[in-house]
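User: Sequence in, structure out. Go.
Assistant: Echoing your sequence, followed by the structure tokens.
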Amino acid sequence: MEKTATIYPYSKDDIQFFRYAKLLGEIQPVYAVSPPGWGLIGKDATAIDGGKPSGIVITENLDSALQNSELLVIASFEHYVGEEGGLKDTLETAIQYKKPFVLLSPPQTPEEQIALETAKQLGLLHCSSEQDHRNIIALASEKDDCDELKSPVTLIVGQGPYTSKFETQLGVRQELIKRGYKVSQIGSRPYCELFGFHSFPSFMFSKELDETQKIITFNQFVKQIENEEEPDLIIVCVPGGIMPVFEKAHNNFGILHVEVSAAIEPDSVIYNLYSNEYSTQFYEKSAEMMYHRLNHVKTNCFIMSGSWIDYGAHHENKEFRIIKFDKPYNKIIEKPEEVPSLSIFEKNVFEKATDAVVAVLEGYNLVDHY
């Protein structure tokens, strides 16, 4: 049964709750509430990044929204500045209204943890992003090698954070399902279950497992999903970036991507880029880098995101800063001859990206379901 929901604090990072609401199952977003200082009040919830308007106007009145909805989705407070209105106060507001809630990001302070525990005791936590992988870790500990996957695997990776990877995951997923494919998927955010697929497993960030153990455990994690769901294909999106951007934005040197590709031997990759004016040589070198770094994988699509690196901030104080646009920052001036190069703002971008994925499936004798 669908539950009407309020999203708070609403930002560009939460647009997908409205844009891909059909994938959400029981949650039906109806209110977008944003803090006054974020500059979003009065704007359309899905037009703030240049997308098609939804007719839902962003408000600042959380009390009114909660009184008229059944569920509160508590989004990230990563960019929130202020002593009041943070996660602790939001949890206390949920308790006040006895409103069930979904928590997308974990608490960061003891005070926030106490408020969360109080809400849990009252039975208000509808679902959370907590994961329990003890069984799969135990299973993998008995193996010394990876099992072969029978399904084709497509990776979605980014040059760095904020390269529209999550929207790409949802857009390609929705298009593949529309075409009749059965898709198993592992996403890059910790709440992907809300959209009907699996979140990236937390054990891949554990300090208790070495690299070999992580590779074998991830392989068993994906193999178990394949056995249970029997998909036509598997999509895996790796969090973070595939290589260092600057000294202070090294993206852990892309080690996570190497581990994932060693575990599942992907067949193709969609590479999301920061907005820039890239040359044909850049695309060719990037595809070559993917081939050698990601277990001989073929790049089948480039997607330029709506984010641009602020090089001025880097040159002045070595700061890594991202600027997000709601329209194309620049045009794709050169394109590779063989690999599609698309823009996140391009019409039907995910239809074209899905075409590239389907081309890989044809090698597995999986014909288009149209």
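User: And one key feature?
Assistant: The chain has a mean pLDDT of 88.
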